[in-house]
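Lab notebook page, bench 4
Experiment: in silico fold of construct C2
Operator: M.H.
Input chain length: 300 residues
Purpose: comparison with the prior construct
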Amino acid sequence: MVLFSRLPSVSRSALGPAAAVFLAFAALMPAQAAEGIATFADRSRIVAIGGSITEIVYALGEQHRLVARDSTSRYPQAAAELPDVGYMRQLSPEGVLSVNPSGILALHGSGPKEAVDVLKKSRIPFIEVPERYDNQGILEKIHIVGKALGVDAKADALAAEIDAKLKAAEKQTASIKERKRILFVLSMQGGKLLAAGSDTAADGIIKLAGGINAIDGFAGYKQLSDEAVITARPDVILMMNNAGPATADDELFSNPVVASTPAARKLIRMDGGYLLGFGPRTADAIHDLAVSLYGGQVTD
């Protein structure tokens, strides 16, 4: 579902003095719906929230419309030159509105809810882009961003290109018989692993790369008991780089429970935005993860 604001007012106390003054003098058009997808009437000053959203804007060649991005938007490198409105899950309305946007493109899951509610009630058109961890979800993002920016033809061409790459990437592991069981570890605290279950980006990329998520008893992320780690029987542990404080290899493998599994000393690390972004680079991420898992068994 795509959401956009319809010009209700917001109190000065809810936004703070700077944002309230800005809204008092703003005269921006709301987004309009077209064929079930929203489009911005004024596309000149867009804020992109969510790394994959920013990547898609650049892939469409529409980066000149961006006036700011969130801190998860680290690719391409040129995006880092844009003002940073904060981490997508810890936004402040004042920070987003301070760049005088004509529209906000935000990935579903941006937050906190209170901040997003304020932004949706402001006079700035707000389009929320759904997040699904599969091939169709990536193509849907591209079409929604393209429609929002008024470049449907560009979006159709990019989606066709990405679709072909995704299908080719999945075929690379089609002939592999013995699938690796992969435990995605987000972090480790107090000797306990915080791992990814179903309905997560980690679960999605593991499956697309021809692996099996070693955790199937819950959705989202959850701290595992020692028994759960042993029962999971992972062949490989997968972790992110460049996504906050990292757990050192020695700390991970010195854990006696981890050491007792088939994954002892078998660790793959990949850049977090690249691995879990589900955007234009995901076909490449699928290939790289598959090669790390299966080596020469991966066919081009």
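Observations: The first strand starts at residue 32 and ends at 34. The CA atoms of residues 7 and 135 lie 34 Å apart.
Next step: discuss at group meeting.
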